[in-house]
Every structure is written in C-alpha cells, then in structure tokens.
Amino acid sequence: MSYLFQNYKRSNIEFVKAQGNELIDKNGNKYLDFSSGIGVTNLGFHPLLIDALQQQINLIWHTPNLYINTLQEEVAKSLVDDQDYCVYFCNSGAEANEAAIKLARKFTSKQSIICFEQSFHGRTYGAMSATGQSKIKYGFGDGVPHFSFAKFNDIESVKSLISSDTAAIMLELIQGESGIHLAQSTFINQLNQLCKDNNILLIIDEIQTGIGRTGTLFAYEQYGIQPDIITSAKGLANGIPCGAMIGHRRLSHAFDYGSHGSTFGGNKLAMTVAKETLSILNDKEFLDQISLKGKILLTKLKKQLNDNTNVIDIRGKGLMIGIETTLNIEQLVNEARRRGLIVLPAGKNVIRLLPPLTITSQQIDKAISILNQIFNKKY
C-alpha cells in the first residue's frame, strides 16, 4: 500500500545518486541521463553548483521577502542582461505563468488571452486554463475564463481571435510537452508585429526552452524579438525549485506593493544555485558549444534513423530534440532505460531528448547507439 496519491505513473526504479550526467539507482546501476529531470538539471550534477549550495546551507537558507535579498538582485541582473526588464521570483513554471497572466491583465485592464492548441503552461488553474490540451483539464470543471486557442504557426487563426478585450498572446517557441513542435520564424515575426499594431502584450513561455536549452540563454533571442513578458523555471536553479517572471520595466507599476507574492520565491538556496548557473551560462563560448552539440546530435540521429521505417520525423533546436515514431512510446522508453539511457515521451508518439548541456561527444555517441538499437527493434 502506498501513502501517496496515484497521480504519477512511476517506473519501478529509484535513483539515489548522481555524478555529472549520469544517474545511479539503488542497485548501483548507472544511466546516461538524456532527460535532465524533464529539462531541469541542465548542467548535470555540476560540482560548482554543489559547492555553492553547500556553502549557502551553512549560512542561511530562507528569509521571507520582507527584507533585502542581494542574491535576488544579482540573479535578476544576470537574467535581464542590463536590458529594461524587472524580475519576479517564484518556485515553478506554473507559478511564473500565473504571474505573467496576472501582470498582463492588471497592466492592460483587459482579460482575454490568446494561447495555442497543443500548448502546455502548467497545472494550476490559470496555467491549466492557458494550456491547449483538453486531457490536462479533464474532470476539473470550469477553468479560468477568457482564454482562447489559435492554431500554432497560423497567423490568420490568431487574427480571428483578437478583440478589444485582448490583453496578451502567450506561447512557447517550441511546444515541448506535445511533441517538440517549433515555431516558424516568419510566424513569430508576424505575431510580434501583430501585437505591436494592436497594443497587445507578447508573453513567451521559456520554461523548457530557456536557460541555454536551445543554444542561447532564451530561445526568443534567435527570433529577433523583444517579448513584453518572459517566464522561466526548470533549469534556472538546476533542480532547486525556482521560477521567474520577467516583465518589461514599463509594466512594473502594475505589480505594486501587495499585488502579488510568494513565501518561498527567491529563497537563498534557489538564488545561490541560480546565480552560479547563470554565471556558467552567460558565457558565449559555452552557449556556442550547446548549439554545436545540438547540430551534431541532430545530424547523427538523422544519419542513423532517417531511413528507418519506424521513424516519421526528427526535429528540434539546440539540445531539445524530438523523434516522432510509429512504435510504442512506453516500450521505447522502457527499453532505452533497460540499456542505460533515460529518455522522455512527448505527445502521443514522440521520444523527447533533453540531455544536459554539459553532455560530451562520447555520451552523444553512446546515446545514439542505444537509440539506433531500440528503433531497429533489436530487443
């Protein structure tokens, strides 16, 4: 008998230790982690982050947001890179998106927000209501009103939903949970202009695509746009719960005293690790290596699997890659794990690869070898 709610489908394995980019189970078996804890441990189990965390634990790990927190200022500055933005810290991606929704509505005094089919923004009521997947909402009754859903990469479907009450348009640049679907550059440029022309805020959800995952600190940088609001979490503190909502400074008066808050948001432990994480990532050479590794991984995967009749498509950006297949996803994930490789499902028929940004060329080759075997059904 379990004392836990059964809302997770757990595999019969427990990881008890980690070293670099590998996980170790309680039986001592090692696994190459191509999931990064669902895009969280972006730097693997990095020794610099471990040292920083241990040092902070010996000092103090929590103070409420009633007092000055210099660490928050330092992390915020690293996130915005001296651009004209302000930062609000929370604990997760869903919380960051909730804050973005509240800021957009309060600043504009409007309520309607246009989102996209097959999107995923979280499981709290506001974030769930912004999500374009009915399975996420099933059984929970009415969600938060005034959300509508356009077709991804279809500017005309967006235009058809705009009204005088439209506060914002909210989207991921890569829809991760539904199967690694990339936003087209032309579409994003059109969307950006549409927002400007209609005085609509543009919210970019970078929960999974941010913190170096696609080869830049945030994916939006590769589209040549400046969003009004950006949300971040997952890899921000490399596994210590941490989220952030980044908004243009002109919006800041809408989040005045008492308008929003978090007990744990921006706590000392999260900020310490986030500061060290961003210190590593705010290095152009390191980011360039992520782009290079992503191209190598994508190229080698296509070389190995493009002629495989079980593979429909291979797509991605940086180290966020999806393999669409006709095979049973659960069976593929289980077989990869049996061979020492941790991968993720996405959507109905996609294997999602989110390796640590610190992955080595040897580890890439090892993963490709295992993937080649399981997609050729050598089991």
Q: What would your notes on this structure say?
A:
With 379 residues, the protein is α/β, with parallel strands linked by helices. Helices cover 35% and strands 20% of the residues. The protein has twelve helices and 17 strands. It has helices at 36-39, 47-57, 70-80, 93-108, 125-129, 134-137, 155-159, 185-198, 268-281, 284-305, 329-338, 361-375; strands spanning 15-19, 22-25, 30-33, 85-90, 112-116, 147-150, 166-172, 174-175, 181-182, 201-205, 229-232, 243-248, 311-317, 320-325, 341-342, 344-346, 350-353. The strands form four sheets. Strands 4-12-11-10-7-5-6 form a seven-stranded mixed β-sheet, with helices on both faces. The protein starts with 14 loop residues before the first strand and ends with a helix.
Shape: globular
Helix vs. strand class: alpha/beta
SSE arrangement, N to C: EEEHHHEHEHHEHEEEHEEEHHEEHEEEH
User: What's the number of extended β-strand segments?
Assistant: 17
Q: Could you name the ranges where pLDDT drops below 50 across 5 or more consecutive residues?
A: none
Biggest beta sheet attributes: 7 strands, mixed
By DSSP (H or I, 4+ residues per run), the number of helices equals 12
Radius of gyration: 21 Å
Note the beta-strand portion: 15-25%
Mean pLDDT score: 97
- Strand line-up of the largest beta sheet: 4-12-11-10-7-5-6
Q: What's the N-to-C terminus distance?
A: 33 Å
Percent of residues in helices: 25-40%
